[in-house]
TrEMBL record:
InterPro entries: Fun_TF, Transcr_Regulatory_Proteins, Zn2-C6_fun-type_DNA-bd_sf, Zn2Cys6_DnaBD. Residues 31-60 form the Zn(2)-C6 fungal-type domain. This is Zn(2)-C6 fungal-type domain-containing protein. One of its GO terms (molecular function) is DNA-binding transcription factor activity, RNA polymerase II-specific. CDD domains: GAL4.
Amino acid sequence: MPPSLQRSYFVSKKALHVRLMDGDAGHQYSRIRRVKCDEAKPHCHRCTSTGRKCDGYSTQEAHQAEQPPNSLSLGPSISVDPCATGLEKRTFDFFRTRTAPCISGYFPDPVWDRYVLQTSQHEPTIRYAVNALGALHEERHLRRTVNETCSDVPAISNGFPVLQYSKALHGLQSLLHAKTVPMDLVLMAVLLMVHFESLRESFVPALVHVEHAIRLLHSSTTFDARKVDPNLVRSIMRLDVQGSLYLGMRIPGLPFYTAATDNIFPTSLHDLAQARDLVNVWTCRLFHFMRAEADEHKFKDVGGVPLEKLAKSHELTQTFVDLDALLWDFMHRPTLKLTVREQLGLGMLRTRVKINKILAATCLYSEATMFDAFLPDFEDVLSICSYILASDAADRRLLTVSLDEGLLQPLFTVATHCRESRIRHSALVQLRKLASTEGSPRGIWHVEAMVRTAEVCIRFEEACCERANPSCSDIPEWCRVHSSGFDGWDVQPPKRQRVFAHMRLRPNGMDGEWADFSEAIEWSVSSHSMLGGAERQLLMEHDQLGQRNPYRYRQTVSARHGWALGPQTQIFNVA
C-alpha cells in the first residue's frame, strides 16, 4: 500500500469508521455502506444515485456547500461600528430588527434584507440615512407605546433623526459630485431618504427624490443604468408607481425600464418574488397608458376613441385576467410552501391585479355605471383585504407609502367605485381600521384624509336615493362621483389644519358638462407633532440649501399639477 494512501481503521460495534490520512480529512468512507466517497461535490454521486444520503462529507462542509455564494447571514456578519456611540448602536439595531422588516413588508427583498445593511457598514452616507430612518421609526414606536401626549420620553424630544438626515443629504451631494461612485450607492441613499420623508409625511420632498432618481436612470452621461442592480431599480419603480396611484395626473417615469423587462409572459410562476416583479411591471405599464393616453378620452375628449387605444385597453385587461389566473394557480400548487408573511403578500398581489383589471377595462369610458359589472371582483378584493387586516400585525403596515401594495388603494377604490351599499360600507369599515393602526387616535394624515374623502363620496351618492341601503341600480349615472381626491399633499404637516375633498360629476347626464364639488374636511392629526420646532427649522434650512444644489431641483409638482387621489382622480378648477 503506498504511503500516501495509508489509512487507520477504527472499528465499532455498529459501523466501520474509515478516515483518510493523506491530508484530505473532509472525505470519508460511507459508514453504513462501507464504500469509498467519490469526492463529487456537493454530494457523493455513488450515494445520491441510489437515493441515500452521503456520509462522506462532514456536516459543516456539507452546510457550506449548500450555501449560495452570495448568501448572507445577517446575524453574525452584520456588526455595528465599534466607534459608534450608544445611541447609534441602538438605532442601527432597531433599524435592523424592526424598520427593515417593516419596509420589506410581505415579500423577501434583498435591498432591505442585505444590501442596505451591508453597505451601511462601510459607506457613511448610507449609515447616516439608516440612522435617521431608524431613529424616526423608533420615535413613532415609542409614541405608540407610551401614548402620543407623553412628553417625558427623551428620544422624542431630541433632534438625532434630523441631524443624521442632514449628514446624509450632505453625503449624497458629495456622491453626486464624485466621478467613480457607483449608481447603486446613489439609489440606495435616495430610497432611504424617500422613506424618511414619507414617514414624516412630507410627500413633496419624497416625490422629488423619486423624480430625481428617475432622471439619473434616464441619464446616459454620468451614470450607466445598465450596471445598476435590478433590485434597486425595481424598488424605485414601486415608489414611482405609488406616486401615480396617489397623484391623479402623474405619469410613471420608468416606462423605458418596464419596456425592457418581463416582455415574455410566463406560463407559470416560480416564486413570490417573480410574481411581485411581474405585477409591478404591468401596473407601471397600465398607469403609463392611463395617464398618458386614456385620461384624455375619459375626462376631456369624451368619445371618438381610436381603435388602437381600445385594442390596448383590451390587451391590458386580458393581461391582468391572465395574471390573476397565474396567481390563483400558484396559490393552489400542491408543493407550494409559503410562510404566513408570504401568504399575506400573495393576497395583496391578487388585490392589486383585480383592481388593475377593473381599471384597464374602464379607463377609456366616462360612464361610471361600467363599474357595476365588477361586483364579484370588488367583493373578492374586500374579502382578501379583510383577511389581511385580521391576520397581520399593525406595526408592519403603512410604515411608509411603499408598503401599500394591496390594502389602502384597493379598499379606497372599492369604497368609492362600488355602488353596492353592503360592499362599499364594509370597505369603509376596513379603511377606518387602517387609519387607526398607527397608535394615534386619528392615525396618519393621508390615510385619515382618504377615509374621510371616501365617506364624503358615499354620503353624496346615497343622498340621491330614497332607500337606506341602495344597490347599484338605485344610484343614477348623473348622481355618481366619477373621480375624487383631496388637496394638502404639498403643504407641510404643521399647516395641515384643514383639507378639501373634491368630487367630479356630470349632473346633466352624459352630454352635459363636468361639475366639480368640494367639501371641507377638518380634524386634528397629532402625528404632525412628531418633530419639534427646532427640528422642523433645521429641515427647512436644509431644504433651502437643497434648492441651491443640483440634486434638489425645483419642486414644480404642486396642487395645480394634480395633487389628488384615486384611480382616475384629477383636480381641476373647483367652482
